[in-house]
Known about the structure:
Layout: E1 3-5, H1 11-28, E2 34-35, E3 43-45, H2 51-59, E4 67-68, H3 70-85, H4 100-107, H5 110-116, E5 143-144, E6 147-148, H6 155-158, H7 169-172, H8 186-189, H9 193-209, H10 232-238
Antiparallel strand pairs: 1-3, 2-4, 5-6
Amino acid sequence: MLERLQLGINSEERSQMLRSLGQGLARLLPAQSVRTALRARELVCLPACTAHQSQILNNVGSYRGLTIGVTRYQGEEEEGAEAEGKKIDPSKDRTRVIPVDTSIRYLLSDAYKATYGDDPVWKKYRRNFKGQRPKKKTRKTCIRGGMISAGNPCPACRDEYLVLDYRNVDLIKQFISPFTGAILPPVQTNLCQRRHQELVVAVLKARDYGLLTHDVPHRQYNYKEYYQHWDESQEKATS
């Protein structure tokens, strides 16, 4: 708690001290730590100050109408020290960019076969959801600020070596239906929305480059419905 101390000096000395104190605090303390709530006859100060704060209060000052937020300034210093000393878990760090060639070699390695076997990467994955029925849509993303923010990330986010790229054909084939050739929905593959969009772009780009083969549906039309003078000889010629 802040304690108000009456200063046993005259008004001229008090005004001069407050003016010099404010000029120094405006340079050293953050703007959020200084508030305009001080009366002309009172000075707000914390009884138990640290050595650094005591030196600031002794050497510099504030002008009339400013308050020293010592407690808030001390809290900001502690938060900054905790952030600097906090260690990053390397298993959750996703700031490193994995090349596509490394991902392609990973799919052929013994480590990949020991982890996934012959099944797709999403086959043994299970979503965590509240209740008995899963949601229609998966989460937006598993990675925020270069770190995994979810406790159970999607199959593509939990393994950083699974790069969804149009050149990584063996990986994106696992997310395509072998019967229809369509991209499997995220409800089935359990990919987050961000990774699913990357998958769609990779599949369409691989088809444009000819890396993925897909069947174009063939449709037969009855030309007699469009042309009045259509005969069977013309239909055989067109077929």
